[in-house]
Design a protein that fits this description.
The protein has 14 helices and four strands. It has a four-stranded mixed sheet with strand order 3-2-1-4, sandwiched between helices.
Length: 361
């Protein structure tokens, strides 16, 4: 029965039911493990590109018409030589840079913005480092037929269906314009196709952005679930950060022993030891070059008090019994500190008695 209870406790201790600690989140972030949706990046990039196309259509149209005009009116009439081909190549390359450069710049800025909105500034090479375990066919088979893979398949089907319906509705809404494209001029037909393309892109990007928000919420939930910790994990992390409690207690014990040893070494320098007489002992010294008032060089109760009195006896230090004063000094004065002002008179009388006894005055 006890064994079963022990096994149950071990099971619950190992079950990952606790939220991740700040250190676990920080370690996961350093490894590049964050809640992030690729669909958000795709949607924002597409939305940015198609928005740019909708505002800069005339600019891009002028570039395309300029390239075609130069091609048919100038380049095709030139003699086919090495220098002419190089000149034509540079001219067309310049027009392509002016055409594609702004689009690629908008896409890059949108990609940076979407990543920053999700994870902030993050640089990690952990995710791109080669790992041999990724070549394991057994693990690859498990990934293919895992629950996550099924969820991703369902998401893909949902995205294709949703975006497909949106684009179909856009086309259906402008079916009359599409049916008369053959009756329009080439320029008008191309203008209608460009307008349809941009409109479908904007609506599809908006639909994908809506789905990506849901996907981001799912990715955040899945990430929080994956970084959960068990109670044992939290204890181990605490031990790693703060140190093993057993070791810490031993260190504190050793520190106390060292402090006790230093304190006992100061007892022979005391002028007087005031006792309870059995439970308390406070060793005092007066050095006008150090402090203006007598100060505590050692104090203790019970066993430590007996040890202080034993050293005092061995060093011929006078011991004075004063129960209320010993208790008050022990509770209100720390080692190395001057005694409180309200005890000046009582301590002065004791020191005067000690000095007279030692024939110092």
């Amino acid at each position: 029965m006890k064994r079963l209870i022990k096994l149950d406790l071990q099971y619950f201790a190992g079950e990952k039911t606790e939220k991740a600690t700040p250190k676990k989140r920080q370690d996961s972030r350093k490894k590049g493990q964050v809640a992030k949706s690729q669909d958000v990046n795709t949607a924002i990039v597409l939305l940015g590109v198609f928005s740019f196309l909708s505002f800069s259509g005339s600019y891009l149209k002028d570039i395309v018409i300029g390239v075609m005009r130069h091609t048919f009116q100038e380049f095709m009439l030139q003699e086919l030589t090495e220098n002419n081909i190089f000149t034509i190549f540079l001219a067309i390359l310049k027009e392509l840079v002016l055409f594609l450069g702004p689009i690629m710049l908008v896409a890059m800025l949108a990609g940076i913005a979407s990543n920053y909105m999700q994870v902030g500034f993050l640089f990690s090479t952990e995710t791109i480092q080669p790992k041999l375990e990724k070549l394991n066919p057994l693990k690859g088979f498990k990934r293919i037929f895992s629950l996550r893979a099924i969820v991703e398949l369902f998401k893909s089907i949902l995205k294709i269906s949703f975006v497909g319906i949106i684009t179909f509705l856009v086309l259906w809404n402008r079916i009359d314009e599409i049916l008369i494209l053959s009756q329009k001029s080439v320029g008008a037909a191309l203008g209608t196709i460009a307008s349809l393309t941009v409109q479908m892109g904007l609506f599809a990007s908006g639909a994908l952005l809506f789905l990506s928000i849901l996907d981001y919420m799912y990715q955040k939930y899945d990430f929080e679930k994956n970084i959960r910790m068990s109670k044992q994990d939290i204890k181990d992390e605490y031990k790693n950060i703060e140190g093993d409690p057993l070791i810490k207690s031993k260190i504190k014990q050793k520190q106390r022993e060292m402090a006790m040893s230093r304190m006992m070494q100061e007892v022979p320098n005391a002028d007087v030891v005031i006792t309870n007489p059995t439970h308390y002992a406070v060793a005092l010294k007066y050095d006008e070059n150090k402090l203006d008032a007598p100060y505590v060089v050692a104090k203790g109760v019970d066993f430590i008090a007996q040890k202080i009195k034993l050293i005092a006896k061995e060093q011929d230090i006078i011991t004075v019994e004063n129960r209320p004063l010993a208790r008050a000094l022990y509770s209100q004065a720390e080692i190395g500190d001057a005694i409180p002002e309200e005890f000046f008179k009582a301590v002065a009388e004791i020191l005067a008695y000690v000095y007279r006894t030692k024939n110092k005055i």
